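Handout, section B. The chain below has 145 residues.
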Amino acid sequence: MKVRFELLAALLLLVALPLAAQERSYKEGAVTVVTSVRVADGQMENYTDYLSKTYKPVMDAQKKAGIVSGFYVYSTRARTPSEPNMYLVVTYPNMASFDGLNDRTEPVAKSVTGESRAEAAAAGVKRGSMREILGSEVIREIELK
């Protein structure tokens, strides 16, 4: 009986050893959405005015509510007319932050702007004349140990 117990313990140790060796050298960190924007010729002042007066207060409120960790606006020199000349960057604490995101962000945005969902959608269409959203990319930070 004692031999069986020792054999079982040794077998369990052999099975557990590779699992311990598989510890990752990193952990998954914050998640960032990078949106590529092409601001139309002659619309940079109008679009940055919107960003300053509407986008920033909404994002500040979302940050205060703990929905986002941070947000940034970057300008860039596009190499061709089809490339972005601005990036909107929003960082979330983790991937789970996207669960029920609209249900959490819409009330915050409405409290800041006073716009209903329909009014916010109409305002988005109006902004379409100032800029074109070329796409978004989701990236995740890898925190090295």
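Note. The first helix runs from residue 2 to 21. Compare this with the example in section A.
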